[in-house]
Design goal:
With 349 residues, the chain is α+β, with helices and mostly antiparallel strands. The chain contains 11 helices and 14 strands. 32% of the residues lie in helices and 24% in strands. The strands form 4 sheets. It has a 6-stranded mixed β-sheet. Strands 3-6-4-5 form a 4-stranded mixed β-sheet, covered by helices on one side. The N and C termini lie far apart (94 Å).
Length: 349
């Protein structure tokens, strides 16, 4: 008697953990958000194998400026608290604020979203936030990648990376080389912790007695902790049209003491006064709950200053007024002077 061959199930990509239909559904959801970010120069955006962007006219010697970053362990709190709608703003901010420091206008942005299993609603919230961040920065969301990789990430978690490209006239690149003793350091207010120092934030939140239902400075603790990174692009670009901006520093990992020196010559020191601006309630709370020393606070967190602008003394008042008119909170936080032997390039007194 002839033996029957058992019927074998035909395996699909979905059986292996990858849902192509879910990916298509996500693309359909995000297209309207991406469409709102379109600007002159976009030739082909989301949907193709690559995106096309034409360098804007009017530049004599256009120089492209690129930046890439992620959101860090702030994502862990977004997962834990199931809040995905503003983390995309953080992603955009980290890259566009960086390229802004060179005087560049952000042109377009791409994102990379990776997960173990695609959850369309949460992924759509993330990309909606990315589009919102692009609108704030005036750049186009012209593409990205959604990677579903079973077994690579725990359930409910994902990773994010962002890529921004901007343009600046070659002779208008801001590199800090013209900064000299006597120049003024202005500080623009942050929205909160922004996207750096969250490993320490999470450690503080895990301390005994911390109640996540608490309020800080009139805001719910969770809202204060997850407040998205402020995007400084539009007000600073407008400022540069009217004032000679000599240096810009995005205050990210390393805080004030490690980021301001990136725009200073080796013979210069920025002396900042800690009493020149108010330490926001959230940072006071983090310092008290974590028993964090002042020096550590200034190296880990922005402590209320998200962007630093260096201008000449004669331009300081006008620059501050212009930024405040544009909606920024601004303080004169210090001055540049000659560096003493063995001295740090940024000191907070």
């Amino acid at each position: 008697m002839k033996r029957k061959t058992p019927t074998r199930k035909s395996l699909t990509y979905r059986d292996a953990g990858v849902d192509i239909d879910a990916g298509d559904a996500l693309v359909d959801r995000i297209k309207p958000h991406a469409k709102r970010t379109m600007r002159p120069g976009v030739m082909a955006g989301i949907g193709g194998f690559g995106a096309l962007f034409e360098v804007p006219r009017g530049y004599r010697e256009p120089v492209l400026v690129s930046g890439t970053d992620g959101v860090g362990t702030k994502l862990k709190l977004a997962f834990q608290w199931k809040r995905h709608d503003t983390i995309g703003i953080d992603l955009v901010a980290m890259s566009v604020n960086d390229i802004l420091t060179l005087g560049a206008e952000p042109l377009f942005f791409l994102d990379y979203y990776a997960c173990g299993k695609l959850d369309v609603p949460s992924a759509a919230d993330v990309v909606k936030g990315i589009a919102a961040g692009c609108e704030m920065a005036g750049c186009a969301l012209i593409g990205g990648e959604t990677a579903e990789m079973p077994g690579m990430y725990p359930a409910g978690e994902y990773d994010l990376a962002g890529f921004a490209v901007g343009v600046v006239e070659k002779k208008k690149i801001i590199n800090g080389r013209s900064i000299k003793p006597g120049d003024v350091v202005l500080g623009l207010a942050s929205n909160g912790v922004h996207s750096n120092g969250y490993s320490l934030v999470r450690r503080i939140l895990a301390q005994p007695g911390v109640k996540l239902t608490s309020k800080i400075g009139g805001r719910a603790l969770k809202d204060a902790i997850l407040a998205p990174t402020r995007i400084y692009v539009k007000p600073v670009l407008q400022l540069m049209k009217k004032i000679n901006v000599k240096g810009l520093a995005h205050i990210t990992g390393g805080g004030l003491v490690d980021n301001v020196p990136r725009v200073l010559g080796e013979n210069l020191t920025a002396e900042l006064r800690s009493d020149a601006w108010p330490l926001p309630p959230l940072f006071r709370w983090l310092q008290e709950r974590g028993n964090v020393a002042d020096d550590e606070m200034h190296r880990v967190f922005n402590c209320g200053i998200g962007m630093v602008v260096v201008v000449e003394e004669k331009d300081a008042k006008r620059a501050q007024a212009l930024l405040e008119k544009a909606g920024e909170r601004v303080w004169r936080i210090g001055t540049v002077r000659r560096r003493k032997r063995g001295e740090a390039q940024t000191i907070v007194v």
